[in-house]
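Exam review. A common question shows you a sequence with its structure tokens and asks you to describe the fold in words. Practice with the pair below. Do the first one on your own.
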Amino acid sequence: MHQDLRARAMLTRWLWAAVSVLFGAGTALAEFGFLLLTPLIALPGPQREPLSRLAVRLTEVELRRITRFHGPLYVDALSPQRCRRYLALRWLVGGLGFGVLLMLVLCVTTAGSMLSAWALGGDWGLIENSNQRVDTSLLALTVAPGTMLIFVSIVGVSGVSTLDHWLATQALGSGDLMHRRILELTSTRAEVIEAINDERRRIERDLHDGVQQRLVALGMLVGRARRATGGAVLEQAQSMVQEAIGELREVALRIYPSALDSSGLQAVLESLAQRSSVPVRLSFGLASRLPSALETVIYFVVSEALTNAAKHADPTLIEVTVTPGEDRIRVVITDDGPGGADPTGTGLSGLASRVAAVDGRFLVHSPPGGPTSLEASLPCA
């Protein structure tokens, strides 16, 4: 059973490598065409900038392909000069991959035609008018070299795929030490975010179980005293205590929404929409739970956006959409207010920092006259 799983995993990896080499052979044609145009870069004129952008664009296509089939690849900033050097070598790897795949196809096709001719006792129809009959002796002579060629082709596909990844790492990568430090920083940052959320949970529990319960008891006591004496002062005191309880609950909710752990993100966002002083239309497209850090960021982005819109924009409707992508979650909050929001303001810059803490992107689009749109794009892979 274990050997079957290993064999299946090896076959899957080889198939992924073959598909990567096939796509790489196709992109090599575009890269060869680009190299024919590179002499124009040395000439003065407006053609240099478009060619530099094309070099970066072709390199980005290659990086997406390699990342898709080989996993993450850490690279430095893509300068046009580095991209041109990479493409000058990359098309050779793509051409080599095309040759290996072509040899594999020819070997398998030839072997299949010979075996079918031998099994049916007919002529070898791969070569027209050859009148070459495939008998046992001819088959025995070709089995060893044919098997060797097929084996070399199969290994060659894996080799070209590995060479492709190695070339991108050497030409564009940021080095093993940088890779390790990036991984360490990413892991540490995730741990810090989780620790902060744990601390927020603790503070929320302390407020709920400690101070809030005392205020509730005080309110009940003042209520009993007011009913006994009928004093106006006690009535005012009870009212103030009730206001304090309400404010304390809001503070606890802003520190950390405990309902996220029990009810989930959708229920908490629906609760935010119901409590908003402005009508909110919520569209939630996530089918499963996200990591706690991501759900917390999404909650605070939506909560702060609703508060800012109600306080500063005076809109009649706010739309909130949460939609999944291939590897990112997209959160968009749009209001029909007059626009002109300042992205550098305290509220929006704080949201940008929250989103950046999880490798997300935060965009603000608020032209004069509106509408205002806030978009947070968060990685989920």
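Now try the second one, then compare your answer with the model answer below.
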Amino acid sequence: MATEDVVHADPNDVGLYEIESLCMSCEENGMTRILPIKIPFFKDILLESFSCEHCGFSNNTVKSAGEIQAKGSRYTFKLQQPADFQRQIVRNDTGIFRIENIDLEMPPGPGQFTNLEGLFTKIQTDLQHDQPIRLATQKELHDALEVIIDKLKAMLAGTAFPITVTIDDPSGNSFIAPSTDDTHGQYARHDYIRTHAQNIQLGLATDDDNGEADQITDAMAGVNVVDAEIYELPTTCPACTKPCTINAKRTNIPHFKEVIIMATVCDECGYRTSDVKTGGAVPEKGKRITLQVRTLVDLSRDILKSETAALKSTALGLEVQPGTLGGRFTTVEGLLAQVREQLHGQIFDTDGDLAGGDSMASETRQQWDGFFDKLDRAMKAEVEFDVTLEDPLANSFVQKNVDGDEKDPQIQVEEYERTDEENEELGLNDMNVEGYESGHEREQVEEREAEREREAEAASTNGHAEDDAAATATTTADGRA
């Protein structure tokens, strides 16, 4: 066993390090090679490869070279053609990969940097590995796995589209690459606040903390909320789990409704975020608002994008899924700037250079360059374009540039029926509203219940009459007999 690690840096392989390390198979010294790499659209990772010349054991893994992100992330991608299997994926050692079509889950394990075809192939190979043994010892399990293996083969052969996959990582360090060719609903990313149990899993908290966030009392209870007044609410930072403060302020949007603007700043780690919360009853239908932007004045319109709203622009080739930006109350220009900043940060470095590593294909770079060029021109009102907010809860708003109740010719508002998928995502399918109706609705419910009782009583009376008639007929028939 070596008494110290020996690190070698080959000047011809910049960034490649070789570390002499212990082989866990034969306990001789093997060689670990580490290559830092920057992935386009993502961040830095470490590719690690171990090999032992004594016993032949080898192993490969991927680890995040960055910090744990402030929020967890969940990517959803729908494969629609064979080319989609080439989509790049990073599975961190805390990421859970799922193939939703067959309810197959790949639990957290050694990290991987590959494409979807490689990940599917690995799952199929791992399942097939011990099938001969299962056939002899666990026939039922063998047969059940054969069904899954056959489905995986069909997927890889391109005969089982569409295929929906997800990767959920509480550390925020897993990733599926986006593309400018993604169609509506094909690609989605959702960032979420980690639970206390997930923070324990990542080593950010301990059981002794007892979930500080859960112990925080409602600081607004019994308080008469006043417009323009700023209220401070204690909470825990989602990035470092230390105590911090949420500043909340209620404001009224003319011709719309009241909203709560919230901002969080952590003095411990510097984490910052802002959000807008809307309230009110759940409407029967969603709302779709489309604004035609023609001049600089239109860029200055106030716009409220709720956290449930999707942002789209056909002219710009832009689509932002619900939950990606959270709630935002800003201007049209400000909203586009936030979209650009977030998306540009995923694809390019902060200095504007292309992310390194395996390098982005020139054709792909040209597509992204064209996209950002058009977006930059739109933010200067050099091109006319459309902006659509599609909100299943109808909590989004675009300012009109006309007086009173006049119709703005540049704004089109339409209601639409929510899909079953949207209702499920919003939790509306499982919502129990019995006993929570308004006064008028409660009267209607009580009237319907009374009507049902009268119908049941009438049916019961008719039933008794029919029974009496039947008994009489039977008696008469017996008498005649």
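Model answer, second protein: The two ends are 108 Å apart (CA to CA). The chain is about 30% helix and 30% strand. Full marks require stating both points clearly.
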